[in-house]
Design brief:
There is one protein chain. With 315 residues, this protein is α/β, with parallel strands linked by helices. The protein has a domain at 27-243: Rossmann fold (3-Layer(aba) Sandwich). Helix content is 27%, strand content 29%. It is built from seven helices and eleven strands. The protein has a nine-stranded mixed beta sheet with strand order 2-1-3-4-5-9-8-7-6, sandwiched between helices. The chain is elongated and about 130 Å long.
Length: 315
């Protein structure tokens, strides 16, 4: 169990809020590790994956003896590294006699192993073996296109699972709007058989097409490899149910006196209070009104004097 610490400073509090679960997750970081034994081909594969994921990947160079993803108890140290680096995807390379050039790709939820896919690497070709214009090299932060070709990705369970994992590994940050200038590469995954997938990395060349949308041409820039599916492990039902939870959208507050019509659109009602004209104060008093007031005062004064004389005569 990891020790739960409460933040004491504003910087620590902001860091914890950044790592907290979000309704819309940002790009996932990838952790790349080595096993006890690795071959030269496998080291090159892990290095190429790190370069393709540059900016959102963490690579460990030391060997790890205690990491065995498919065995019980062999996930403890892996989950510890995922928690310390805040990574939700990992790529683990190992070399065994029965499983040469073995690559394990997995996802994590809440820093716990979610699912695993084990593949073998065959016919690997690094970027150095391809000759292409250096302008086609991928830039950091660019958005790739991912194409899955073949019916196996829809019918075979192993390939369907591999498709989901590769999408999370290669797609980068989830965005809503996309500029064509930021699309400079493509990953092409072709299902050769029920357990083999050919993965290639291509650069996009934009050419004139006579319209606003340019014509795109693919040029292979590497790396390329064959991935042979060996083992895979789906997530537990309880963990999958917890990971798939989404918050309900808050119901919108009803706006009074507003309705919508298919013809007129948005319609609103305005209620005006009764206007009491007699109680409204006039801003400017007219001269005629002043004269009437003076005459009324004089008349009232004469009436008072007349009433006083009548009183005196009566006495």
């Amino acid at each position: 169990m990891f020790e739960v610490r409460t933040p004491r400073t504003g910087k620590a509090r902001r860091a914890l809020e950044k790592r907290a679960p979000k309704l819309v997750e940002t790009g996932k970081k990838t952790l790349i590790l080595h096993g006890t034994k690795t071959s030269g081909v496998l080291n090159a594969v892990l290095t190429e994956i790190f370069h393709m994921k540059k900016g959102s990947a963490v690579k460990f160079s030391r060997k790890n003896e205690n990491i065995k993803p498919f065995e019980s108890g062999g996930e403890t140290s892996l989950e510890f590294f995922l928690n310390r680096t805040d990574c939700s995807i990992f790529v683990f390379g190992s070399q065994l006699k029965k499983r040469p050039d073995n690559l394990v790709i997995g996802r994590a939820y809440d820093h716990h192993i979610y699912d695993l896919v084990e593949v073998g690497v065959e016919n690997f070709k690094p970027m150095e073996s391809f000759k292409y214009d250096k302008k086609l090299a991928s830039q950091i932060g660019s958005k790739p296109l991912i194409a899955f070709i073949g019916e196996g990705f829809e019918n075979v369970e192993e390939l369907k699972h591999l498709k989901e994992v590769l999408l999370d590994l290669l797609r980068g940050e989830v965005i809503e709007n996309l500029n064509l200038v930021g699309v400079d590469r493509a990953y092409v995954c072709t299902a050769i058989s029920s357990n083999m997938v050919f993965l290639s990395h291509c650069g996009l060349r934009l050419k004139k097409s006579g319209t606003k949308v340019p014509r795109m041409e693919l040029e292979e820039v590497g790396p390329s490899m064959d991935l042979v599916v060996r083992r895979h492990r789906l997530p537990n039902d309880s963990l999958q149910e917890e990971a798939m939870k989404t918050t309900r959208e808050k119901p919108k507050k009803k706006v009074k006196n507003v309705s919508k019509d298919t013809i007129e659109g948005k319609i609103g009602k305005i209620y005006m209070p009764d206007q009491k004209v007699g109680d409204v104060a006039l801003p400017n008093i007219a001269k005629g009104v002043k004269r009437e007031r003076r005459e009324a005062k004089l008349k009232n004064g004469e009436d008072r004097h007349a009433s006083k004389k009548l009183k005196e005569n009566s006495t």
